[in-house]
Design a protein that fits this description.
Structural class: alpha+beta
Distance between the termini: 38 Å
Shape: globular
Order of helices and strands: HHHEEHHHHHHHHHHHHHEEEEHHEEEE
Number of helices: 18
Low-confidence stretches: 5-28
Radius of gyration: 23 Å
Bound molecules: protoporphyrin IX containing FE
Mean pLDDT: 86
Length: 502
Amino acid sequence: MQNCATVKHRSVIYCSTHRYFNIATETTTQPLKTWEEIPGPPSLPIIGEIHHFLPGGSLYKLEGYNLQNHLYKTYGPIVKMKGHFGGPDVVMLFDAESSAQILRAENNSPKRPGFMSLEYYRKVVKRKKGHSDKYTGLITDHGQEWRELRSAINPIMLQPKSIKAYNEALDEVAQDMVARMKSLRNENNMIKTKFSEEINLWSLESIGLIALGVRLNSFDFNLPMDSPVRKLIKMVHEFFAVADILDFKPSIWRFYPTKTFKRAMKLYDELENLNAEFIKKTVMRLKTENKPDDEKSVLEKLIDVDEKVAVLIASDLLFAGVDTVANTMIFIFYLLAINPDKQNKLREEVMNKPDRRPYIKACIKEAMRLMPVAFGNLRETSREYNLLGYRIPKNVFVIICHQHMALMECHYPRPHEYIPERWLVDKDDPLYYGNAHPFAFSIFGYGARGCIGRRLAELEMEVFLARVIENFQIQWLGEPIKVRQSVVNYVVEPFNFIFKDV
Ligand code: HEM
């Protein structure tokens, strides 16, 4: 059992009684420890900690949850990783209260760096080519520019009523996808084609319909491999792969244009052009139509505000909204497949309660807690902090390791079990989710910069899951699923799902 109070490097006990102390306030009479004193793997000049990840190193072959758990157990709730090859120093937080401290304090103008190579492409490469737009996009802008973009999109994407209006359209996509799945099964009721690609088609079709207002026809069996839709999916995958190498792994691209860096610049260019093509076609069509507000797509609503902004935002929605939702959906299917009692309970609800479905929401939430699509979130500090008794300087990258925190016993009892009920039980039940620190699980991020696609993602997943559960008994064959951590978490093949007719 992993208990927050058992961390050997800390004198602070805050969690086992479900009371959370503000550690910064507790220790104000003691001198702050320095940046250098923050525990972490010893680093070497220039290369930082890379040697630990090489054969024989203490972190060799560790990744994802296992890496986080190793760091937490070895160094405690705050771990420093030195930047390598000109990259920034990073602090990893496994402590919910300190995460809250950073996320709340940075909420005024939150800076989430992350996709540095994409930012370089949009702010340096593109501008050298003559693009002079004030904005570069939701993901890569910060400060005033980001705030302006965000305030244009917030009312469209975050109001439950405007998202609910897409229910029927999403259901149509879900039903089409179920029909496609039926026709793609072999004699053992397994999907003959690559399952992850199939789910990506569903996710792209859904987001395409909402963002652009058109059916992309991703489910067309005659879709050529070099069609724009397939190209887009391939490019989004590739985008995450190159961003992982350049931005989240040691890379010297800041000093020398590596092969991957060159590939990335070309890919970002191709991806933006492809997105622009999709969007241009839609914009032209929309100019000839005049729909009532509640039937308009996100792009249509944004065009009413500002056409250039509309194109930028729709482009970011397309690539941030495909892999995230698709992979989450695969994790949900898997957890329901290996927990047939939960699946049957869900089916009961889906078949009998069309209007109110709390259990489906709980199944999705619990899957995201147990198998999140992203392991953490990021903020750059805009000032100094006192975290857990250490001085954290300005301009440091802080990673909020929410995957690890959401699997801590002190927050969620029986943390490695799939128990959707924990999101529904009363206060006096020990499983009650409200006993956890509110920042222990923050899959969609936090505050002003939190995921703009959250409500849409939730609705997409609910609608599709209901249709799948109504039609199929999902089973999983053989060894447990394997997950590969990249910028987002992916399932490694084989996809041993069985979709039997109910
Ligand atoms: C299960 C699905 C999803 C998960 C877990 C997820 C998670 C996240 C997280 C953690 C962030 C960072 C938030 C922060 O910094 O506090 C984020 C940002 C973002 N997400 Fe999502 N997301 C999902 C689906 C989507 C979808 C469907 C879309 C598009 C419709 C989308 C578009 C975006 C965009 C554009 C941002 C950047 C927002 C900004 O910086 O202002 N996401 N997402």
